[in-house]
Each structure stands twice: as structure tokens, then as C-alpha cells.
Write a structure and sequence with these properties.
Helix content: 25-40%
Number of strands: 10
Distance between the termini: 32 Å
Number of domains: 1
Order of helices and strands: HHHEHHHEEEHHEEEEEE
Strand order of the largest sheet: 2-6-9-4
Structural class: alpha+beta
Radius of gyration: 17 Å
Largest sheet: 4 strands, antiparallel
Length: about 220
């Protein structure tokens, strides 16, 4: 990353951190009875076995992956793991497409992408799901819970989140954007509307190591 892009990235994160630092608690909508759900359905929540998206159907996703942008996404996922079998690459890519309510479209790599995780946890080295700092700021202004807008599984919901950032290691780094699909979990006991913009990073080797840059308490 060039010096000017790095400066811009740092300034953007600093500005968003200031906005989030003054955030008031009490976002909406809250997941009801979260503590009781975790006690009663600990195994299902831990395994994320009941988490389902309601965005793209598989037929539409398969048609997208047969098209030009879909083939680009498949190629980018393949480049991240040359040892994986073709069917594994396809399944990983299909999960990315099905996580959205709109078809992923390739966009220029933003100077900064961020991800929220429950306080004290680390970002998985394989997760492709990120968003923009500005998206978190918009959710804060709307007093909308990140768990609802980003359609987080119950396992990833928290009263406080750590914010990590990644930056591209080259201008050619692939990024695709789509809208987060609505989700249901625990047979409909938990539902999230989604709708936030998610940035898919198919090849994490083209990005920096995640760096903790702040925290939010919705």
C-alpha cells in the first residue's frame, strides 16, 4: 500500500473510532432472551447448525457462479488454497454467495476493511466476511444493532465487540460486495434482517494480518 493510501486508511479508522467511542448503548432490535437461549441451546449455538440464510437461492447462486463475475470469485477463492479440491472451492464460494441477498460484484479494494468479533476473541484467518468502517458508523447513527444488520449468528453476538482492520497488500487484491441476507436460527427463535453491506475477501493472503483498532458497545 502506498504512503497516501496508508495515511488515508489510518485517518479513516481514527475518525470512525471517535464516532464509535461516543456511541450510546441501547441499539435496536435486541435479540430476546439471549442468555436463556445460550443456556438452553448451547450445542446448537456452538455448532451454528441451525443458522440459515434467506437470500440467494441455490439455483440463482449456481447461475451466478457460471457467469463472468462468479468465475472471478471462484478463481480468487482457488488462489487462496491451491491444495483444495474443486468441489471444496465451489462449496466455499457458494457459501459466500448464499450469505447475501444480492449478487456479489467486484469492486476496487478499499484501503481499510473491518470486522467485529466478541470482546477478547480473534479474527479467524479464513473468514472472508468484512465491512467498511463507515458502515459501522451508519449503524451507530441509526442505533441499529450490528448483530441484526450484519446477521450475526448467536455465537457471535456480544454486549461489546472488538474491531479489527485489514488492509490490502496490493492494488490487485480481489474484493466483492453484496448486501447481507436475512437469517434465522434455532428454528426461528432468532431472526436478523441483515441489509448491511458486506465485503467478501476471497483470498486473505492478499490482506494484512488483522489489527485491533477499537471497540464498540452497541
Amino acid at each position: 500500500m502506498g504512503a497516501s493510501r496508508l495515511w488515508f486508511a489510518r485517518m479513516m479508522v481514527a475518525a470512525i473510532s471517535l464516532v464509535l467511542a461516543g456511541a450510546a448503548s441501547g441499539c435496536e432490535p435486541q435479540t430476546p432472551d439471549l442468555t436463556q437461549l445460550r443456556q438452553r441451546y448451547a450445542s446448537e449455538i456452538s455448532s451454528v447448525s441451525t443458522f440459515k440464510t434467506h437470500g440467494f437461492d441455490k439455483g440463482s447462486a449456481d447461475r451466478y457462479l457460471a457467469g463472468p463475475e462468479g468465475r472471478e470469485l471462484l478463481q480468487a477463492v482457488s488462489e487462496a488454497d491451491h491444495q483444495a479440491a474443486p468441489e471444496v472451492i465451489y462449496a466455499r464460494t457458494l457459501d459466500m454467495v448464499l450469505s447475501g441477498s444480492t449478487a456479489p460484484r467486484r469492486v476496487p479494494a478499499p484501503p481499510v476493511l473491518v470486522k467485529i468479533v466478541p470482546k477478547g476473541q480473534q479474527v479467524s484467518p479464513y473468514s472472508p466476511y468484512f465491512t467498511l468502517p463507515a458502515q459501522l458508523a451508519v449503524l451507530n447513527e441509526q442505533q441499529r444493532c450490528p448483530a441484526d444488520a450484519l446477521a450475526l449468528p448467536v455465537k457471535s453476538e456480544a454486549e461489546e465487540y472488538d474491531v479489527y482492520q485489514i488492509t490490502p497488500l496490493s492494488a490487485a487484491a480481489s474484493v466483492f460486495v453484496s448486501d447481507v441476507a436475512p437469517t434465522v436460527e434455532l428454528d426461528g427463535k432468532v431472526s436478523h434482517a441483515g441489509g448491511a453491506s458486506q465485503f467478501l475477501v476471497p483470498d486473505r493472503t492478499q490482506r494484512s494480518v488483522p489489527v485491533l483498532v477499537g471497540k464498540i458497545r452497541p
